[in-house]
Amino acid sequence: MAETNRQNQEIEEKFARKRRRERLEKVGYFVASFSMLLIVWELSRAVGLINPKIFPSVPAVLKSFIDQLSDGSLQKHMYASFMRVLVSFAIGIVMAVIFGFLIGWFRTVRLLLDPVINFFRALPPIALIPLMIIFFGIGETSKIIVLSYAAFFPALVVIYQALVSLDPIYIRAGKALGATNLEIFRKIILPQLVPNIITACRVSLGVCWATLVAAELIAAQRGIGAMMVEAQNFFQMPPLVLGIILIGVISLLMDAFVRFVEKKATAWQEKIS
Amino acid sequence: MDKGIVIDHVGMTYSSLTGNVEALRDINLSIEPGEFICLVGPSGCGKTTLLNAIAGFLEPTAGSVYMEGRKISAPGPDRGVVFQQYAVFPWLTVRQNVAFGLRLNSNRKAPQEIDTIVDHFIDLVDLKEFQDAYPKELSGGMKQRVAIARSYAVNPNVLLMDEPFGALDAQTRQFMQESLLQILEKERKTVVFVTHGVEEAAFLSTRVVVMAARPGRIREIIPIELPYPREAATKTSPEFIKIRARIDRVVREEFQKLRQNTAA
N or C: which end of chain A has fewer CB within 10 A? Predict the structure, then answer.
């Protein structure tokens, strides 16, 4: 008995060591991958593959980062961008969930709206910008509308597709146990859609963030896009490149966050791995 | 007439692209409380359709099904359903699955009462060790026991089972048949059970209803007069073998007829 316990413990430890090693390895490769990018960047400048007078060095971008951080302008821009994305994303997702359910649940609504949805889905959000400026001016409203639009359609499609492909067996099981329509919706349909809603969030957040810079080109005073436009106007290369890097890093972080939530919320799912 | 289930001149016709399909024609059957009825027959004989009509998932196009004198028009907690595909909610633990029906408005109970009932039925299907596991961690047989406990928890008078053990391997199926009988021994229900297995039908039921296809109708009703409790040894007794052979002959005939008709 003690013997088997000791053996089990040893196996347990062996697996724990293996998991630790794999985690460490992953971090190592992550660091190596980005270091490689930085090396290629500096090397390309050194050998003249890209014009070193135009394209800034790694330390110059780093300096711009620290400077803007210490005078608070970077925080101001990032805050503005974040708020725009978060507000628009929230509006887009809530609308997508509501409309997704209406479309998925009512056949008539689905048949009526499906063709139009496909039209709007194919329409890039940026194409709306000129119209929105005429309607709402160059203020916050037009940006929020364009970004909400960007968040809305991909999420809508994910949610209603998931809804129409649900297995009716669980609904039947619920009815046979005495569930009312509202209970079926709350206790059977909604929990099954949680993974899809999270996927919708991931897609929407990505599209939203990608549309942000374009939206901020509308004479924005603040925001990472505005910072980049300003840098372009004054031919300040380090803040421009910094803007590009920040957009990439923030979008990676947001995606990692949504994936983390997904893992917590969908522990019951059978994963193919 | 008042007690149990009465199937009264039930017919069911579907319209499909190739014309109308008559899934059931003039089905008449009275099921007494406490009976165990097995529906057997070739594919397409409408046995699942009939079960769905009793469950209230489908409305017959002719005739009616009555339960304790009332016409069945919708599913309800007085008739528990166990499906071949388990239909255990994968986002809930075993405990939460069994408690599901008790937390609905139609049979809401106080939390302590729910706990007591859930404990009782988890014990009954022998899943105490797994009560906090998610369905993905369970085998097929265990999932089906969760489904049975979930149905039992809302205390239905009737249990409708649609090939519940069809997806299980032979050993597990045998085990599940025996445990189902043991559960019923402790807490009696009327059961209507759809199966492909002649042996399963003979082992479990008080009456076997053999159905014929195209259109789906009752071919013969065979009473099984073997005493309960039945166990593994029952299957090797001469009476059992005789009755099984009899059911088998009728089912085989129907299967042959069907094959000749489709070949012609």
Answer: C
Tokens 């998991």 identify what position?
A19
Q: B151–A176: do the CB atoms touch at under 8 Å?
A: yes
E strands, A41-123, in order = none
Q: Which two tokens stand for residue B198?
A: 């002649």
Interface contact flag, B75 A175, Cβ < 8 Å: yes
| Superfamily of chain region B1-76+189-252 | P-loop containing nucleotide triphosphate hydrolases (3.40.50.300)
Residue B89: pLDDT above 90? yes
Annotated domain spans of chain B: 1-76+189-252
Q: Exposed (0-12), middle (13-18) or buried (19+): which is A113, by Cβ within 10 Å?
A: middle
Beta strands at B36-40 and B207-212: parallel, antiparallel or unpaired: parallel
List the one residue out of B101, B34, B148, B92 whose CA is nearest residue A194.
B92
State the average pLDDT for chain B.
92
Q: Which of residues 125-184 of A touch B (CB under 8 A)?
A: 169-170, 172-180, 183
Distance, in Å, from the CA atom of B53 to the CA atom of A261, rounded to the nearest integer, reads 43
Q: What is the rounded (10 degree) CA torsion for B218, B220, B221, B225?
A: -160
R_g of chain B, CA atoms, integer Å: 19
**Residue ranges in chain A modelled with pLDDT below 50:** 273
Q: How confident is the model at residue B27 (pLDDT cuts 50, 70, 90)?
A: very high
What pLDDT was estimated at residue B32?
Answer: 94
pTM for the full predicted model: 0.79
